[in-house]
Amino acid sequence: MLHCLMNLPRHSFIAVLLALVLLKTGIAEYTLFKQWALIAQNPFENPFWENTPINPEDALAFHFLMWSHLLPFLCWCVGMVSASNVFWVSLFFAFAFFWGLMRCTFCFLPEQSGRIACLLFAIFPVSGIGFFMVGMDSFTLFLMGLTFIVGLKINHLTLNRGGGGIIAFLLGILLGMQHFEQGFLGVVALLFAICFSKQQSSGLSFSFCLSWVLGIVLGKLLLVLLFLYWQQNVPTRSEHFFRNAASLWSAFSLNFQWAWFAGLGLGWVAVAHYVRQKRDVLPFLLPLLALCLLPIIAYDYTRVVAVATFPLLLQFVFLNADFLKNFPKATLNTLFVAWLFLPFIYFFGRMQSAQGFYTLLVHLFNL
Description:
Layout: H1 2-6, H2 10-25, H3 33-41, H4 59-66, H5 70-77, H6 83-108, H7 111-123, H8 129-132, H9 136-157, H10 165-196, H11 206-229, H12 237-243, H13 245-264, H14 267-277, H15 282-291, H16 301-308, H17 310-318, H18 321-325, H19 329-341, E1 345-347, E2 351-353, H20 355-365
Antiparallel strand pairs: 1-2
């Protein structure tokens, strides 16, 4: 089965993987998508306070939506302000992220390694989270992937001499205005890994990632200044955390094993193989495990961990030629078959899954 897939023409190979991911995840909007889309109607006001369709008491519950401000603002700029328009724009970026990353993979890897990278990417939950919950993460992942690919392209053109700091800084500003926490933590984890790793001869440079982090911080500061200028009263994420700290800790401590699994899913097998294959694993493993503790401060474990770990996984797993060329075929085949039959698992306080794929399997077995 896997042999046939790996020998398809490149475009057909990517199309089949996309179809399989969509079959597993389906396409559905983010839980609070309609509330988030309200921002696009008037990004200069906070729609979650008084004199709005939203109950003022809900403002703290919805506050984090205001800090994912860039895409609703862009939708407002082009006149696509209805919830359905914002949905289609978000879905476009989800497809652009998936297809673009897979196409660009072959620019930096040999054909066979590129196909293994695409397959591993499809197996990790991050590949489908933009379809399973269409919304802010679709654009966040697109910006992350775009910055990474641009950085690798600059490295290729300059023969690994670095550069591109200004571009990284500018793209970082956009990411900071779209989702500061996920962007900042994800890139800082990557920066830590690059700084202490002794075996990384390719991938993003330390200076590029440092410029990226600084841009993300400036993007957040610009958003804060804009809110002050527009006289918007937007509560910080810390207020929500301190109000719900006990509940968050209880949910994580009672379900930590599922929370850890759901963030990377079957991708933990690839991580285990990386640890077994490499000697210099701590620079990669320590920040990865630290990011897997993010469920302590967030309910939606899968999307938070999947997005935050994405830059680290890109550098050390998905686009690591040395790792990919030694990935065992038997392990890859077993992993692919297991991924085919397991439903897409999502954790939000309790285990959930995309039921459409599971129902289809039940019908197939009952034929």
